[in-house]
Amino acid sequence: MANNKIYIAIGEEAARGTKESTTVGFVPVLSPSIPKFEFDEKKRSEFRGEESVKGASSYERMGQRWSSSLDMPFYTESGSTKGMVGKILRHFFGKVTSGQNGATGQYYHMAYPEADPFSDANLGTKALTLNFNINEGAAMKNWPFVGGRVKALSFVQEAGSPLKLTAELFGQKRDTPSAEVGTPVFADEALRCDYNNLTVYTGAITRTGAAPDFTGFSFGSATIIKPDKITVKIENGMKDVLRIAGVDYPDKTRMGQFKVTAELTIDWEDPASGFSSISEFNDWAAGGSSTNLFLKWDTGTQAGAGDSHGLFIDLPALRRLGGSPDYGTDKDPMITLKYEGLLSIDTGYIAGVMLKNTVAVI
Questions:
Q1: For labelling alongside 317, which of 18, 66, 77, 186 has CA 20 to 30 A away?
Q2: Running DSSP on this structure, what letter comes out for residue 192?
Q3: Are 342 and 320 in contact (CB under 8 A)?
């Protein structure tokens, strides 16, 4: 029987384009698709006398790059090097502020958009290596895709399912295949975020600490929403460029503008106190509707003496977009409320993400 084996380990490169296959964190993926190769290949097209009519004689490879979409169940830590899940957040936002709660012992990591992610104080020259370990027949090999950048993160939570993180990446080249990064170790199941440990809030959120480097959140008077599905997508507009720099792969990344979209599929007849899908629709139809959302996954697994591993997503300013009720004879009427994020002056960000775990620095 043929082998059918693939797994991935993520490493952080000290200098972009120099693979990191030793200090790695193993993450499970929901689909085994390898990154897509893209080559800029051109036919030789010079006029060479009458021989030109006989057809092109060669191709020239002028450039290369790769892109990948990683679908992962979200765990607060990765296997082996625990902080690599946090590295994905850091390489997307450009900045993470970490600290430890002196009373409970767990570590928190607050990420938010940084205007200059590649400054020396932030990412500098760092990038990610995606180490895809793939069977080549009976042999296992590591295919290191180097120079990785993260351009988008999507968090999708459906009822009865784990939280799915989709990280969209691009990078420079596949480095030379090498020996398998062996003995994969994955995070404990108790560190997985899923539907039954998510609470969705709107309304008054108490943020502890100085903006935007908050150290905690509380929800005493906030309203709890119970959607059937929720999706949050955050994009940063990153784009690679190929320059005349002596290499045939992109060696510079340009930033775009951060963008946030959120969608809640919810019962059209839901009259929740402080939040109503019907009111949201009617306010939008009347010309205005704004709100906020806060998503909290608490795994229930302690990361310290009094607090748990968890994930927090703070969307402080959302503008309601389109979307109409969906009626049918085979279901309750539903509506998907669609929102676009705006920069909040109070928090200093369009989206903030906090990770709580046992890792001191990510």
A1: 77
A2: B
A3: no
